[in-house]
Amino acid sequence: MRLGSVNFEKRGKVAIITLDEPSKLNALSAGIRQGVLESLARIEADDEIRVGIITGNGDKAFCAGADISGISLEAEGVQKFLREVLDVVHTPNVALETNTHNAPGVIRPVGDDNFVHVIMPMHLG
Prior knowledge:
Layout: E1 2-3, E2 6-11, E3 14-19, H1 30-45, E4 51-56, H2 75-89, E5 94-97, E6 105-109, E7 117-119
Parallel strand pairs: 3-4
Antiparallel strand pairs: 1-2, 2-3, 5-6, 6-7
C-alpha cells in the first residue's frame, strides 16, 4: 500500500516500510516523512505486528539524509516537525538525548525503550 512516498507492506507479524524516491536517493522529503509517520501509526495500531523494518528502494542509497528543499527551517517548521514526531510517540513525557552538537540524538518516551526517534544534525552554513 502506498503512503506518501513510502510503500507499506504487512507480512504476518512484520511490517516493511520502503522509502521509495530512488531518483532522490530516498532523501527525507515531505512525502517520505508523511509515509513513515503514517506507517508508524499503522504499526502502533496493529497489535499483531511485532517487528518493523525500514528499507530503501534503489541500488545507490538507503537514505541520503534530509531533503531540506521542502522543509521549513524557520521555527514554525521545526515545531511542526517535532509535533508530528511527538504525535507518533503518544506520551506526555519524552527524553531528548544528545552527546555532542554534531552527533545524532534521539527522542524516546520516558520509561519505554520500545520506541526511539533518531534526530540527525544538519550544518546549514
